[in-house]
Amino acid sequence: MQDEILLNPWVNSHAEDTDPSVPLDDDKWDFVLVSGIHNAGSEKEIKRKKFLDELSKKGFTIKKIEDKKLFYGVRAPKQIFQKYQHLLGNAEGPLQNPEAHHDIAVTTRIRIVNFILQNTVTPDLEKLHDLMKKKVFEAMFPLHEKEEVRQFLEEKWARWRDIFCQQPIEKIRCYFGEKVALYFAWLGWYTYLLGFAAVVGLVVFVAGITVFSSSQVSREICEASNTIMCPLCDQHCPFWLLSDTCTYAKVTHMIDNEGTVLFAMFMAIWATVFLELWKRQRAAVVTDWDLYGWDEDEEELALELINNLQHEPRKYQHSYFRSTVILLLVLVMIAVLIGIAHALVIYRVIAVALFTQSDFRFLREQANTMAVMTGAVLHYITIVIMTKVNRRVALYLCDLEKPRTFSQRENNFTMKIFTFQFFTNFSSLIYIAFFLGRINGHPGNYVRVAGKWRLEECHPSGCITDLFIQMGIIMLLKQTISSVMEYLVPWVAHKLRKKRQHPKKRRMMLGEEEEAEDPCKRQWLSNYQLNEVNIFSLFDEFLEMVIQYSFTTIFVAAFPLAPLLAFCNNLIEIRLDAIKMMRLCRRMVPRKANDIGIWLQVLEAIGILAVIGNGLVIAITSDFIPMQVYKYTYSPCMTENSTGVDCSTGYINHSLSIFHVQDFEPDTKVPKTLPGFAGGEITITECRYRDYRNDDDYSYTVQFWHIFAARLAFLILFEHVALCIKLIAAWYVPDVPQSVKNKLLERKHSNLRKELSTTVDSTDV
């Protein structure tokens, strides 16, 4: 009864008038607040009434509907929007309805009301956020309206049949706001240009397949039936023949060839061109929206004053002590993530030892490959788990920083979560690319984990295949499982919520009279049954795409199919996001923006890392440099002046060092014989291993230092050339098109002329 007395003044208030910005239809509401049915006089009931009373004092119209929950529809008075247009009339941009000169965009209206709801303070100094934490209110959301724009988006955007069609960015902006529209504009542009990279990567990969069996290096490995290799573990691991890894060698050369170098250079240029063209695209889009010079701080201050005329702006603050503490905590978190990568390394080491001693022949023969594959799956599982941990840690650190605005908080959070996610996703790849097989020592003096297990070795044809397998498995798992779960979880959740809200028996009992009596009820209930969205819903989509962009560019030299996988995934991702936002989730609160924010700086940093990463992959991981050194220094073409042979002839024998079995460590238990072809046994006196060492004292040979110098020279040359090309491309492609500059110039000129005309006329009068 008390609730009804409290609500009566709101229902009968004069907030609903003839203002064109307020829909005259009774079923049009800005927001819906959902609350549980609490006992009369309870603490939650009192807090809820106090909050609604504060809204009433600000002139809000409030309507109550009771079902299993209490639903409160709220509608803002016209004065709020008049103040906004007076303060920021020039910042509103083109109106949705040009003929209604006093109208305001629906997205702007929702944004203003959301700001006021979030910043309304009760007499107990509690805001809506605090009340939702205490379960006074369970949900708040703007409504999906039955309007023309939504119908268009459902028919032309959120459908699988339009997967190859251009996105209606302007319609997306009108319904979800500029920030969401810019995300889809960026994603569409990224996917469009990714198509060119995917074609080039596919050509490079197919070219590698055509030389699958024709490589001189892989032929030598396949024919090396007399080359005995050292055991892969210490306890009862047998010697093995180099020819046993024939297929692995062919796959390695399919990936590691001259085309890899050219493709890595191409991707470095592509990353720069993509960002520069996006800057131009963004400039053209926001100019059409009249948001090129939009000031976020100015809008925030205006909304604060509209909500509370006595508001004082929160000052910028900086604490060196707090920053130092946060930096130390970030470093600790990075150390933890690197420790997890070390745990994955230890797993691979133990897995190789166990697989090598297995009773199954396949596991023994493919011990390294199986360790890489299972390690990749385990790495994916750690990514899924640590993503949740990283989010909590990043949010905690952001709270310690006490940012002034939501945008500042979002930027700080973005940098921290991306840093954590980068180490989570790439620590294991960095180990495989740059450390695997290079810090393991040599026979007779191996580096061991816990003094027991030897570190892994590279295959005689190189380590790049291990990196290829790791990246392939992680990208496939991330994209397939993530895409399925991204759609399946909201769909199942929506169905369950709908079923709980309206069981079958109850749906049959609902009469037409009840529905006709209150047309709002069905709409509010259907919106409540949709999945909840939060302030980081769009952020999660950006983060997913930026991590994918990192995979696509940083180690693309080892995985030329990365752009193709990313391209196919993005075609599906755009429609999944569209369907999810239009049909499975509540309407997202629109946010104004004129760029993609700090994500652009992150993408530029990834572009630089791509140059460094691909240069290191080619110089260190790939066998490209050692092979070139051999061809032009030690090959038959150089030493014998022979022109009738392949210059890489003899490379494998040249790259393998000799170890005397008698020099094994005392606790090493390996068989000293190998089964022969005639059924007998061959006594082993020496074996081969991948390295450049002398066979007497196992010190590095002259060839090792030649290759080391060549690697370093190539790395410096590659990175400088790639960075120079990036700078030239950035200079050559202006960030802002000339048409946009001219449009802005004409607009400024027109405004100044009008101002001058107004001044002259007033002076004449």
Structural class, by secondary structure, is: alpha+beta
Helix content: 55-70%
Number of strands: 14
Give the C-alpha Rg: 33 Å
Helix segment tally = 28
Taken from the alpha-carbon principal axes, the silhouette is elongated
Number of domains: 4
How large is the share of residues in beta strands? 5-15%
Distance N to C terminus: 63 Å
- Mean pLDDT figure: 82
Oligomer: single chain
- Please give the largest β-sheet: 4 strands, antiparallel
Q: Widest sheet: strand order? A: 2-3-1-4
Unreliable spans are 1-24, 91-102, 505-516
Compact summary:
With 765 residues, the protein is α+β, with helices and mostly antiparallel strands. Helix content is 62%, strand content 6%. A hairpin with a 3-residue loop joins strand 2 and strand 3.
Q: What key attributes describe this structure?
A:
two-stranded antiparallel sheet, 765 residues, 28 helices, elongated, 14 strands, four-stranded antiparallel beta sheet
What would you note in describing this structure?
The protein folds into 4 domains: 2-142, no CATH class; 169-625, no CATH class; 626-732, no CATH class; 740-765. The model is unreliable at 1-24, 91-102 and 505-516 (pLDDT under 50). Strand 12 (673-675) and strand 13 form a beta hairpin. The strands form 6 sheets. The chain has a 4-stranded antiparallel β-sheet, sandwiched between helices. A two-stranded antiparallel sheet has the order 5-6. Strands 7-8 form a two-stranded antiparallel ribbon. The radius of gyration is 33 Å and the shape is elongated. It has 28 helices and 14 strands. With 765 residues, it is an alpha+beta fold. Helix 4 (106-119) crosses helix 12 (296-307) and helix 11 runs antiparallel to helix 23 (599-621). The two termini are 63 Å apart.
